[in-house]
Amino acid sequence: MLPTYKLMIPGPVEVSPEVLAEMSAPIFPHYGPEWTRFYNETLAILQEVFQTQGTVFLMVGSGTVAIDACIGSAFLTGEKILVGLNGFFGDRLKAIAESYGLEVVPVVAEWGKPLSATDFEAAYQAHPDARGAAVVHLETSTTIVNPIEEIGPVVRKHGGIFVVDAVSSLGGISFHMDDWCIDLCAAASQKCLGAPPGLAPVAIGSRGWESIDRQPMKAHGWYGDLRVWRWFATEWGDWHPSPITMATNNIRALNVALHQLQKEGIAQRLDRYRKLAIRLRHGLIELGLEPFTPESLMNPVLTAAWVPEGIPSSRMVNFLADEYQIKISTGLGALKERLIRVGHMSPVVEEADIDHVLDALKAFHASK
Ligand SMILES: Cc1ncc(COP(=O)(O)O)c(C=O)c1O
After folding, report:
1. How far apart are CA 106 and CA 38, in angstroms?
2. Roughly what angle, to the nearest 10 degrees, separates helices 266-286 and 351-367?
3. Whose C-alpha lies nearest to ligand 1, atom 12?
4. Confidence (pLDDT) at 355
5. Would you say residue 40 has pLDDT above 90?
6. Per-residue DSSP letters for 126-147?
7. How do residues 281-334 score in pLDDT, each as one tens digit?
8. How many CB atoms lie within 10 A of CB 230?
9. Best substitution site from 168, 189, 191 to test ligand 1's pocket, by max atoms within 8 Å of Cβ?
């Protein structure tokens, strides 16, 4: 048996008892009129969460499968793509783009600093033939939120296709796919949406489809070719709306999580997360653990702090797991042993959980 931990990591997150219960519901097949109605209702709520009039699919897999599908479907081998690099997951976007034979033009910011729309403008001046851009919204490795709403209009002005990785932000940070000029967007079930891992929501706007439909032949592969998903949604839409056997229990669980989000209200939920973030931040400062970002760059769902000089963050992380059964994270990449990261992106996280993490960190301090 695996032990149970309080998950205060940036995903996967703890889910509500109602969401969890759906994972043990009797197996339902992924076709037929009842399923199709249920599936389409789930997609309609996701459309609202993405804030898009575009098409939404639920791919079975983790967030990466949706990112892979967006880039692989909308870009042709040999095309140039501007990729925002200011953390571990920006590097991942670059690796995915390169795996499809795209020429990556890096648009770089220091880890811990947001990307800048001005730099994307400059990159377009230097590379007017760039076909589009890909950027991470919440860079989970550093807790930095990139200014998608400023970068999107720059990409649109140059006629580019804009792909956004909203894996760790959708449902927890204000998001407006259409207003922010995003053409293709990838997310994941196991973070701010408050459901178990296993599903990757993907959204495609009309310009995203135009770019996909330029392809004379099929895209790379089959599972990630978004035209395959569209074909089944339209041609078999009245009885079997997906190309594959769906993870129906996961979709049931996500459906309940989305209804809970609707019931609470997105604005109310974001406000609740923001208050938790402020509580955690103040508590960390009181303990002498300096937050990684200034208050102006604070985000509502994930907080990082420097660990004291000479203490590897993995020691703190292990102490909390062993002594308090709380999982938090170290940093990533070059910051791995220098930061702790505390996720508060689950709908079930409460003030008491934040206080529990702070108490455990205090106990670590006392044990040194
Ligand atoms: C911003 C971001 N992008 C992509 C990923 C990869 O997502 P997944 O592990 O669901 O494939 C993560 C995972 O933490 C992430 O935080």
Report:
1. 42
2. 20
3. 167
4. 98
5. yes
6. H-TT--EEEEESEETTTTEEP-
7. 999 999 999 999 999 999 999 999 999 999 999 999 999 999 999 999 999 999
8. 19
9. 168
Query: In this structure, what token pair is assigned to residue 166?
Result: 């909203």
Please answer whether residues 135 and 165 qualify as being in contact, where contact means their C-beta atoms are separated by less than 8 angstroms. Answer: yes
CB under 8 Å to 39, separation ≥6 — which residues? 30, 58, 241, 242, 246, 251
- Cα–Cα distance measured from residue 144 to residue 139, given in angstroms and rounded to the nearest whole number: 5
DSSP-H helix ranges across 218-247: 226-235
In the structure encoding, which two tokens stand for residue 321, read together? 């797991």
What's the CA-to-centroid distance between 144 and ligand 1, angstroms?
14
- Could you give the domains of the chain? 6-12+266-367 (3.90.1150.10), 17-261 (3.40.640.10)
Residue nearest to atom 7 of ligand 1 (CA): 63
Q: Which residues pair with 135 in a beta bridge?
A: 164
For CA atoms 130, 174, 196, 19, give the dihedral sign.
negative
**Which residues are 164's β-sheet partners?**
135, 185
Single-letter code of the amino acid located at 115: L
pLDDT over 90 (residue 173): yes
Which of 226 and 219 is assigned the larger pLDDT? 226
